[in-house]
Amino acid sequence: MVSSNTGEAAAGLGFWLQWQVLVSALIFVLPAATAIVLLRKRGASGGDPVKPANLWAPCWRNLHPRWLLLYRAFAFVAMAFLLYQIVAAFGFFVFFFYTQWTFALVVVYFALATIVSIRGCRIHARKPLAQAGERDNFLKDDSDEKENKLKSYHNPTPNEQLGFLGKLLQMVYLTCGGAVMLTDIVFWGLLLPFMAGENFQLTLLIGCMHSVNAVFLIIESALNCMPFTWFGLIYFVLFSCIYGAFQWILHACCLTWWPYPFLDLSTPWAPLWYLALVLVHIPCYGLFVLLTKAKDAAFSKMFPLSFVRIPKEGE
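^ that's the sequence the OP posted. Answer follows.
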C-alpha cells in the first residue's frame, strides 16, 4: 500500500476540463468500451472449451478432487485471515488501494472454487467413472485415440454447459491471473524501490499481501483443469477500469489525494502514465498465460502418464 498526497482537490469543473484530464479520460474510456463490445459479441462465457468437470477436477489423473478442494479451502482461509489482519491494522481505508481489490478478488475466487469443488466431490462420489474412468481408459489406447478422448472429455457439448456459478468462477479466475501479476510486479518493481521512506515501510504483512496472492493462484493453476485464455484480458481490463472509475468518482466528490502517484491527474504527464497503465495490462496478463502454457508443455513431457493436458480452444 502506498499513498500519494500530491493530488489536488477536485474543487470545480475547471479541474476536470484541463487538457490532461480529458486526454486521460479518453485513454481510460476507450479500453473499457472496447472490452464491453468484445464481451457482448462473444458472450459472457468467452467461448472457452470448459466443461463443468474442468472447474473441480484436477489436471493430475491420480489426484482425487478432494485434494483440490482441501487446497482451495486452505487458500481461502489463509487469504481471508491475511485480509482480516490488514483491515484490522489499517481499517477499511485499505480498500482505496488496487492491491486490496485484487487480494479480495482472489479471496472471492477461492471461496467460489471451494463451493464448486464441494459440489464436484459429490458428483465424483456418485459417478466416479464419469470424470475419472475416461482418464484411465485413454492411457491404454493408441496415441490418436488418447488425443480424441481427451478432446471429447474436455470440450463442451450442448448438453453440458456451465451454470451461472461456473461462468462466474471462470471469469474471476481469468481476472485474478492478470490482476495479481500487475499488483505484485508494480509493487516490487516500481513502488517499493522508488517510494520506500518515512510514509511507507515494508512489513511482513504488507509483503505477504503482495506475494501470497500470486503464489496461491500459481499453485492453483498447476492443479486445476481450467484453461487460461487470452479472452480473459477483457475481464482484467474491465476490473481495472472499474477501479479507475471508483477513484475518479471519489475525487469528484471528496478526496484530495491519490492512492498511487501515477493516477494523479494534476500533472501534465498524466496521459502518459495512464497510457502506460493500459499497455502494461498486456504483458502482465500474458505472463500468466505463459505460465499456464509452460505448465502444460513441461508437465505433459515430464509426467505423460499422470498429467492431463487441457486442449486449446478449437482443438
